[in-house]
Write a structure and sequence with these properties.
This protein is mainly beta. Helices cover 0% and strands 36% of the residues. The chain is built from no helices and 14 strands. The chain has strands at 17-25, 35-40, 51-54, 60-66, 71-77, 90-91, 104-105, 116-118, 122-127, 139-145, 158-161, 167-173, 180-186, 198-199. The strands form 4 sheets. Strands 2, 3, 5, 6 and 7 form a 5-stranded antiparallel beta sheet that branches. A 4-stranded antiparallel beta sheet has the order 11-10-13-14, with no helix packed on it. The N and C termini lie far apart (55 Å).
Length: 205
């Protein structure tokens, strides 16, 4: 505790809090090796306001050491399936995007039972070509929900980079009641620096 006559040299430490729960599939099977991360709900930067972990063999996780803020959002990515992913990335509580995620309030202390259920994922794929019809490698294909288009700097639902043949596959796409939108933009590779950003199907947005 800081005494009143030493306030200029005093540092007060906040009590760190934690979030814990279990990640399962829709049939109740534990999801081990899933990446669970937490971040401020307002996307601000504060010491102790970001954290992450990986679920254990029973699908359980605990993210300790959270401090500085009270409102957070939670993200789960089946990172152990980074190739051939069959489960969809999710935000708490069962949301498809960061913007629609439910806020977790830690003002009352640590929370347990923050569980998430991952459903089977779909994928979106295709081939990107340039003005002459040649494959366009190194183009970023980025997926958003229709609802996200009204928001500033939305967090992508998924993304991929086209290969040498201009092909891309975006995995981990969750079923959604809203339409998806795909934006294509040069992000590296040869012969893409002069290509302009556009959406599917030749849409400007």
């Amino acid at each position: 505790m800081c005494s009143s006559d030493l306030t200029s040299n005093c540092v007060q430490f906040q009590t760190a809090k934690s979030i814990s729960g279990t990640v399962t599939t829709t049939d109740g099977t534990p999801v081990s090796g899933a990446c669970v991360s937490v971040q401020p709900a307002d996307d601000s930067w504060s010491m102790g306001a970001w954290g992450g972990t990986i679920t254990d063999g029973s699908g359980a996780y605990t993210i300790p050491g959270l401090a500085g803020l009270t409102n957070f959002v939670l993200h789960v990515d089946p990172c152990w399936q980074s190739t051939g992913q069959t489960l969809a990335t999710r935000w708490y509580d069962g949301r498809g995007s960061r913007e629609s995620a439910d806020t977790i309030d830690l003002s009352g202390g640590s929370l347990t039972g923050i569980d998430l259920v991952l459903s089977e994922a779909g994928s979106i794929g295709g081939i990107v070509t340039g003005p002459t019809g040649d494959p366009a490698p190194g183009v970023c294909a980025v997926v958003y929900t229709q609802d996200q288009l009204t928001q500033d700097a939305p967090t992508p639902i998924g993304q991929a980079v086209t290969d040498a043949a201009g092909a891309y596959t975006i995995r981990g796409i969750a079923p959604s009641a809203t339409d998806y939108r795909i934006a294509f933009q040069p992000c590296g590779g040869d012969n893409v620096t002069e290509l302009r950003q556009e959406g599917y199907d030749d849409a400007s947005t």
